[in-house]
């Protein structure tokens, strides 16, 4: 449906979008996720033809956005972050104006506007001035203008920004309903929104694509990096040996608990296999080793933590001294999981070695 290849946008020395490539398939909701300033809106503007790219191509349903702009734009309905509304018009006047801009045939215009107003639930507001509407209703009017003409692709840039929780839920339900007839691209920096709505997630940071997968697979990534955090009293070597003997335990990190006033209390992190609950086995293992568990907490890496890890890693790679570090693009959650596990393993080992060295100095 949409094919983006090596898309680049530069403003002087600043690169807002850096060789971005991805494909959008028909009939799905895509989440374009990234922190503020990541290049999401710039990418949306280039896909819609609002601004020209420095390099690369955008092909929409076989039409290049730069070479065949009119044909390509007929396939797109766009809601920018700031909806393009005329506040001194009524809702109905505005939608008639947009319909004329989109060259919708007069025979279809009235019925289409009525149908779309019912769909986005603004029929009761059709004779009110847009300036007198709440922000939630203005967003609905913005979505209505994007849907007018029934384009195959609907692009929504931060559609729920500034809305209250009730309005956010209403807009989310509305977006889900669009999937029945349209392909939707949703740009956002709100993780819960993307998880709740989207069939596929693209994570962008500093103009680069750093991860691409379904929410389910990203969820598996979170579940696959299970950690069990313990506070245990006993001998360090005894604790480690007992835990390493437990089935499904992948790695064990034991270090002195700095917050405890008691002697022989250790903070322990147990890494487990994917979708495995080892709490009961760990409990009996510690009982047999005569090492009482003072605290036990099961922790899973959340989508938020994965997102922060990926975007922070990309930020570090921007360091001039590491410019050619060659951090790979994570095409799937499995690629990202391997990267995170290797990184966490290295950090845990470094912390443990540091702890042992401190003990020797004491």
From TrEMBL:
Transmembrane segments: none
Ranges for domain ABC transporter: 2-231
Keywords for the protein's UniProt record, in alphabetical order: ATP-binding, Nucleotide-binding, Transport
Compositionally biased tracts (Acidic residues): 347-362
Keyword Transferase assigned: no
Biased composition (Basic and acidic residues): 312-324
A molecular function (GO) term: ATP binding
Disordered: annotated span: 312-362
The keyword Magnesium is assigned to this record: no
Protein family: Belongs to the ABC transporter superfamily.
PANTHER family: ABC TRANSPORTER ATP-BINDING PROTEIN, ABC TRANSPORTER ATP-BINDING PROTEIN NATA
Protein name, entry field: ABC transporter ATP-binding protein
Native organism: Blautia acetigignens
